[in-house]
Amino acid sequence: MTGEASGPQRVNGREFGWSIGAFNVRVRTNLSHLRESAAFIYGRHPGAGAGTFIDFPVRVDSTDIGPRRIFRPRVTFQIGERRPLYPAPRRHAPLLLESGINWAIGMEMHGYLLLHAAVVARGDQAAVLPAPSGSGKSTLAAGLMASGWRLLADEFAVIDPATGRVHPCLKAVSLKEAAIPLMRDRLPGEVLPEVYHTVRGRIGLLRPSAASAQAIHSPARIRWVISPQFAHGQALDVQRVPRCEAFITMASNTFNYTILERRGFHVLADAMGQADTYVLSHGDLDAAIAAVDRIAADG
Amino acid sequence: MTASSGIRTRADVVQTPMTTVAGRLVLARGHERYDVRDLGDSLVIFDLETRQTFALQPPASTVFASLIAEARAGAGVDQGDLLAATPNDQVKNALAELQDSGLITVHDR
User: Is the pTM of this model over 0.80?
Assistant: First the structure.
């Protein structure tokens, strides 16, 4: 069983595990900086020690031999016997771990309906923010968390087919470019000090709030579906849209809709059948947060 | 209870076991091809053959109901049971007509 807010729990000298809500992760690594970053990001999460069922037993290690161990060393992500991701620079191990776990969730957890969406909640009422990359989803989720919303997920809305509820999948929030200093200002000490320079630009990792971690085993029902669309200079525009339009947006952002097929169709209809559905276009984070607060206040 | 579009709500469906699978509306029983869900303000339809999902908001949902009703009237089928046992071809034709008119959104995998 998972412990209470113990953070990554050491299983033996090189393995430690924790719960991200819907799933349990165990990492084996020889990298001290990865252990430190995991302790920072997941220090408020329940631990997953010996005897716990582990969904994702993974390894992140240096595997280079010869001169490469010294010059531009790389690390690999391994789950079971598979290495599904390209090796990354050693320094990027925390980012590789996040990407690897995302890969594993998206590829394997088909007992759930998995949407590419951020999820925040007030109590047990969730707002799902489905959007492709670059829509400002993570920044808006981080901003809402900073203003008191509970974060359930930055990347995956994990919907239980049996209940239609969203389970937390509480991982680091992946911040890009200008969102990194923005969140350092709003949430001092909450963004991992390291910034990673990647082909997708600069990426920083924000840890979930203590309140979010405390409610990590509390699923929420979908009360609102809000599709964010960020563009610099965009005036705030909030449009209520028919549920069928939001349904298509959700289906288009579902990783395993084509795998679950008919079942996925009905799970999605069950999950969002009572939700109020919006498109939120904005160019200013504070205006967007205020708009989401108004939507929630309207019930 | 019937939605304004003429399409039955989920509550009706649950009370009509012959036309449901696990509480959901299924068209053309025995040879089902389409699953329909009423989301209150609009409809979504899943095509079991092509795996396409159709989104119908007003007026498309209303037009869809009308097209089905017309087709059924032509075939002398009871109008009181609008969707149940509607032949697949009639639904297919209604969707195609709406799609050609640009009135519906289709999610194609």
Answer: yes
